[in-house]
Structures are given as structure tokens and as C-alpha cells.
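#struct-queue
[09:14] JT: dropping the first one here, sequence first, then the C-alpha cells:
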Amino acid sequence: MKRRWLLVVLGAYLLGTVFVEGGESSSVPGWTEELYSGVRPSVVVVKQVGEHGESVSVGTGFAVRGGLVATCFHVIGEGQRIMLELPDGRETPVTEITAWDEVHDMALLKPLAASLEPLPLADENAKPGAPVMAVGNPRGLRGSVTTGILSADREIDGHRMLQLAIPIELGNSGGPLLNQRGEVLGMLTYKSAITDNLGFATPIAQLKHLRKHSKPVSITRWMGLNALDTNVWTTAYGGSWRSVRGAITASCQGEAGTGRTICWQRQSPANDHNVCRVWIRFDSATGGAGIAFGNRSSDRHGGVFVSEGRIWLVEFESDRMLDWDVIESTEASGWESGEWNELRIQQTSDRIRASLNGHELLVAGASETNAFERVGLLKLGRSHPHYRGFKTAAIQPAQDQSDAIRHLVEYAVEIQESVESPNGDELRLENLEAAARQLEHYAERIRLAQTKLAQHRVAEELHELVAKKGFDTARAALLASQLAAPDEPAGLAWEEWQRALGSLKQSAKGKKSQLPDILEHFFFEQLGWRVPATERVEHLDYSLTAVWDRQRVAPELLKLLSLSAAQAINLPVANSKHLHPEDSDPRKELITILRSLVAPQMAQPNIEALPVLETIIKLDPNPVRERFARGWIRFREGDHEAWQEDWAWVRSVTPEHVTRSWVEACLAELHTDVPAWRIGLQNAHLANR
């Protein structure tokens, strides 16, 4: 993204100050009073509403022709429910995003029930020096007004903007900028970071253009909302279950007292399927979420869920409120609140086992309540959980442990048994503390080795994959995401992609004549993804693990996925009208994705970025920045021979003045002084740092 001239500008969220409630201000000239009284009934408060009904952010909007409300794109955000507060204090939901322009920060909304007088749009450009008035809701103060002058007409990052001598404050984004005739000249968008009495507005010509190029999207699709497939799921004990961006969510409490509600899978698990797995994301302090299971012949069922930092196994004896027993509970070690966590339960003839993020935490005796004749999603209390990747499977054979790991586990068990033995009181506490610290040290080293080994295997798989002709581009995109963020649930992302491909194949059957439109419908309608404007693309838009929640996809990632999808349905890529994946070079697109994923770390590269950097170095014939960054990391880690090798190569292909600036930035960050000749800078002396 270009470096904005907006060192002058604080950002697209800060608008409007010194606005006075009710439209009165000591500095407001007399001509504004009558104008304000006519404009105020057309101005509304625009609210983003969170999943718990809370107000996430507040801005301003104004009525235009066609029963629409205009506001800034950043006011409505992405994927949120939107409410309008009308001038009389009533609220009405937005039912449709009629049009939006992320680059010029504008959007048109259609409210459910509102009869607002539209404001006229100016037909001519205002001249600098003209008096102007702004109406908005700064810091939640409804119907505030201020005046000033139009001080300049500027171009910022290639876009025309109106510069205003007006104080602007948080909450006024999207408000109208009016001339003395009450015509809208522009929409307030930016506040200056240099002085309070300076702001910016987008010229109204952009809004006129937007109205001519509308692309209506219902609010349910904007939020990624869909009803549950009743052929797959059935609910019990009330509550509200739905699909949001491919995940299943539960809101509203179910039965009184416990908040229990269950979404049962209609199809019974196969006879040999005695493992049930789901990924869950929620705040465990608000209630519980997990897996329900039981037999079909009675109301009794079991449940394993996470709540209040613990994992619980309970038995619900009947439909009656609070008629349930706690069988076992323990600390939910490894649970990450607000992140995706994998909950897995395994049932055998005499045991039920529960694991969280791959670690077995709970083991208890089985009963008839623990039967796997039916399984489903369980919610308790006031939680608003999200579920993904629910499935059942057969038990996989356990892999043999290495001798070293087995000995370490046996050592820990031996210590525990010694403490719990009749002679445990004779053990010296300081010896136990030393043993605990030693085991913690071993555990930390094992975790680091595990992460390093996992990334090494991912990198190897990626190199082998890309070496093949016609490689699976979606798999390559996943591995790139996994390299950059090894802690993210890559397995879940791959399951989501495979599930989506299965749905695509089903929808493509018998529709050969419609195949040219299939990919566009798949990505933009079925999955609800959106390609952000070029200058608004963020590094996470390149991640296949992040796209499922964000619903934003970078063009390069979309091309790789469209190639994979086209291959899945035997669609010649040249027949895809808009995506044009045939124009892409998969290897080049993959390198761009890798670079974009690691971009936030390039200013001060660290050891975590090394797997991505080394992968780019192997794939790209001219990895100048990556070789320098790797040398930087090696320099920090004390690998002197290796960093000199990297920087020597960089110097051989890069002008000296470029190398000098990179090296000086590196040494400044490291607070290190190295003689100039050591880093290959001629006639240079770096001051002690």
C-alpha cells in the first residue's frame, strides 16, 4: 500500500469535533439555523451491532433518493449487522447493502422501515473559500452541527478529496457536507492528525457514480448468514442455531436455568465410528460449548464441554431442568479463549476419553448414556459459540513413541507415583521442585522441537509439490499459510476447502452450459467471499486458514483456488469469465502469497519468519530482500559465517546505496556496531550504537 500523503490524516475512523448537541454553537453563523432545521430530519445514526447486540461502532448517514441512506464504508465494516437510529429515536435494521466502494469509502444502505426526506445532491463543484456546514453524531451526540469553509480541492493517493477548515470528531464519519442551499457537496471521511480544525470529505460525484453502479447484497448474505440444513441437523431445547460464514453458531439461551440447547446430527454415526471431533471458538467464561452424545431410545444423553476454564463430562438424566450429574471435570489445559480449539471425544466399551487441542485431559468410565447412536453440538449458559469441522470417525491406531519420549513420560509418572505413595511424605520438597523445573524445561524444548520439525515437514511437502507439473494449487496455498502461521488450524482450513469443493461438484452436475459462471457463483455467492480493493488488501487476505472467518481473499490466492476448483469440476479455466485463472503463473502467485504473508515481519525479521524466507529463497531466482532478511536473522542469532554469505550475495546484485540503508536499519535495531569493511560498505563508518 502506498505511503499516504495522509501523514496529515489520522485515519478513516476519526471524524467530527466541536459539534454541539441540538445544532447550536457559539461560532455558527446565522444562515445555518434555518438550513439545519430542514436537514436534521434526513440525518441518522449508523451503528454496527455485535453478535451479543452490543454497539461495535457508531457513525453518521444521510438520506438520498430511492429510500437509501449514504454513509462511509468503514462505518458499516464487513460482516456486521447494521442498525439505523432515526431522528425521532426509533431504530430500524438495514436489510440490504445496495452498493459500496471500499476505495472511496462509501456505501448505500436500504433500511427496513424508514421514511426520510432525501437531501439534494449538488450539481456543481464548490469553490475553495465557500462556506460549508456539516451535520453528524460526534462521540454519540446526535444531530450536532458545525460550520467552516472549503479550504482546498486536493488529490490524495490518486483520489480527489475536499479539504475542510472544520473541526471533525469520532462518530461523524459518513455525515453530509452542505452548501448554503442545503445541497450535499461531499461525505465526511477523514480527520487531520496535525490540527483539530482540518478535515476531509469525498466529493459527492463519487456517490452519484456509486448509485449508478449498485450491486445489492442482502444483509443476511453480507453477514454470511444461512439457515441450517434441516436434512442434516435438528435442534432441541430451544435456542437459535444458524450457519454464519460456513460455521454453525448458537445464540439465545435454550432451556431455562442451564441455557442448554443441542443441534443433533440427523444421521447416526457408522457402527465403527466411535470418535467425534469438532472445532469450537468462544469465550468459555460466558457459558459452555462442546459435544452431545447418547442413544436414541431415551431422553438421557451425555455431554463433554468446556466452561469456566475446565473441561466437563456430564450426564443429562432427562428433559427436566438441572436434572444432570457431573461425572468428571478437570482443568482445560491448552484452551485458547476466542481462538479455534479442537475438542475430540473417543468412546470404547468401558471408557470415554476427551482431548483438547490434541492433549488427552479427561478419562472416565462409560455408561449407556455414553452411546454414540446420536451426536451433536452442545451449548450451555450465555455463550455464543461457533463450531466448524464436526465429524465422526473410527479410532486410528496409536503411533509408537520413540524410546526417548517414552522414558521421559515414564520418569514423570514415576515421580508422581512416588509422591502419591504411602512414603511420599519422606520426599524432600526441594528435590520435587527441581524435578518439576527439569520436566518443564524438557517440555519447552520438546514443544520448540515439535514446531521446528512440523514447519520443516510443511516446507518439504511444499517444495516437492511445486516441483510437480500441474501441482495442486489449493494445497500449495494451504502449506504457505501453514508455514507463516504454524499455530493456526491448517487441518480445519483444509477440511473446509474439501467440503466446499464437494458442494461445488454437486452443484456443477448436469449444468455443463452454465459452467462458465460456476466459479464466480461458488466463490462470491456460495462462499460469500469478497476481493478487497488493491490498496486495501491485508496480509491475512493471502491466508487460506484466515479466509473462512474473514471472508476476504486476495486476488493471488483466489487465482490459485480457482485453478484448483476448475480442475475439480473439469472446467477449462479459459471459460471462466471474470477470474481468468489461466492468466496466472501458479509458481509466481505462490511466491507473492508467501511474500505477503511474511511482509509484516520484514521490517525487523525474526526467527519465526525463517521457514517462509527459506522457502521463497528456494522458489524465487532473485530473492534479494529474503536473502538480506535471512542474513539479518543469522546475524542476530550469532551465525557469523552464514550471515556474511547472505549479505555478500545481496551486495553482488544490489546497488551499494540500497544495501547501506538496509544494513544501517539492521544495526540500529540490533544496537550493534560492526566495522564497515565487515559488511562490505565502502568508505563508510557506522557510529557506535
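[09:21] JT: and here's the second one, same format:
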Amino acid sequence: MQDSLFSAMESVIGLMKEVEFQEKAAQVAKQDATRGGLKILEKVEELKKMLDHAKEANDMHAGEVYGEKSILATEVKELQTRLLGLSDEKDKSISILDEMRKTLEARLVIAEEERRKAEQEILEKEASALSALAEQELIMEKVVEESKLLQLEAEENAKLRDFLMEKGRVVDILQRERTEGMMEMTKLKKEDAKSGESEGGEVEALSSYYIADVEKPGGEISVICQDVKSLKENFDKHASPGKSPLLRQTSSILASSNSSVKSMASDPGPVQLELLELPAKASRTPSVGSQTPRSSVGEEQAGEAGAKPRKELLDEDWELFDF
């Protein structure tokens, strides 16, 4: 029983708490219900005021809208008019563009034709230029070959010029030797002047002829040789075996001169060298017994001076003839 009592008491206490809570909640709900109706009415009043303001604003806005609508209608008409104008202009522009397109197409055809002709002309000109270039290259090759040949000829000419200059120096040496021989003959003539006036006159004439031959140009050597030949013939007529050594020497010189004149007709080139070498030979022709001490010394010097040029000429294929 005690347990049932205790549980009954707890249930009553719980119920009391529940009742208190519900009563409080009911009071709050009543208060809220009273205040809730008032708030709604306040909101209704506010909405009425707002509605009045909205109507006034709508009326004002409606006037503005109607005015703007009329303005927009006018603008629409203007835009339609402009669109019509633009349409006409568009049609005109299209027609102009069509005309331009046709003109451009025609010009394009003409330009393509001209370009094709120009390309063809370029190809033809290039072919012609290539042929001309090939021809010029051939000519240039020929010119180069000719230049090489001319260069070779110039080198040969230079070698020949050096060769001739060297031979000219040799000829100058030979000519100096000949002059020395003539001077030696003049000395011999002076030494043997006692042998006779006629003999001395002939020797003097012979010396003067040889000295003149040295001083004259090379083209007059043949004339001098002819004079020497005539002098030799006249000298042989009056000469005898018992003459002086100078006459024997002169006869030997004249014989050498005669042989040189004969060889000149067959080979003019070497004759000049032979004539230039004649004085040195003449100085060596007399016998040992007929030479004077001074002539022997002069002949030895002339022989030593002429040996080297003669050897050089023989080494370099010059033809020298001994008489």
C-alpha cells in the first residue's frame, strides 16, 4: 500500500506541474491573441495608407507613361520612315555593289590574263637571257683562254726580252773587244810605220774602215764589208811574200773579212756576230814570230776577254763560224 500511495502522490505532483505549465501557456496565448488582432489592424491601416499613396503614384506614372507612349509612337513613325529610307539606300547600295562586283570581276579576268601574259613573257625573257648568259659565258671562257694565252705570250716575251738583253750585253762586250782590236791595230800600224808609206796608208785605211764600222749602225755593215773586200783585192795586187808582219796580219784580217761577206749572203744573223768578233780573231791570226811584245800582251788580254762571251754564246745555242 505504501508503494501505491507513493506512486499516486508522484502522479499528483506531476499533474500539478503540468497544470501550472499549461495555465501559464494559456495566459501567454491570450495575451498574444489580444495583441495579435491589434497588430493586424495596424497593418491593415498601414496597407490602406500605402494603397492610397500607390494609387496617387500610379496615376502620376500613368500620365507619364501615356505621354512617353505618345512620344515613342512618334519616334516609331520616325524610325519607320528612316528604315524605309535605309531600305531604299540599301537597295541602291546593293545595286552599286553589284555593279562594282561585275566591274571587279571583269578587271580580275583582265588582270589574270595580263598576269598570265606577263608570266609567259617573263619565261620567254628568262629563256632568252639564259641563252644570252650561256653565250656570254662561252665568250668569257674564250676571253679567259685568250687572256691565259696572252699571259703565256707575255711571259715568253719577257723571257725573250731578258734573253735579248743578255745577248745585247754579250754583243756589247764583243763590240768593245772589236774596238780594242782596232785600237791595237792602230798601235801596230804606228809601230810598223817605218815599213813603207803605201803599206801604212792601206793599213790606216783599213783601220779607219773598221772604226767607222763600229760607229755606224748595224744596217751599214754589209757596205763596209764590200769596201773591205775591194781594199783587200787592191792590197793583194801589190802585196808580196816578203812584206812586213803587219802586212801579213792585214792580209789575214782581209781574208777573214772576205769570208764574213760571203757568209752574210746566206745567213745575215750570225754575220753581225762574226764581224763583231773579227777584231779579236785578227789579233790572234799572226804567227808567233811576227808579233811584237805589246801585240802579244794585247792579244792575250783580248783572248781572255773574248773566251767567256764566246763560251756563253755556244752554251746558249748561238751559232759561231770560224774562218
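[09:30] RK: nice, looked through the second one.
[09:31] RK: DSSP finds six helices and no strands in the chain.
[09:31] JT: good to know. The chain has a mean pLDDT of 70.
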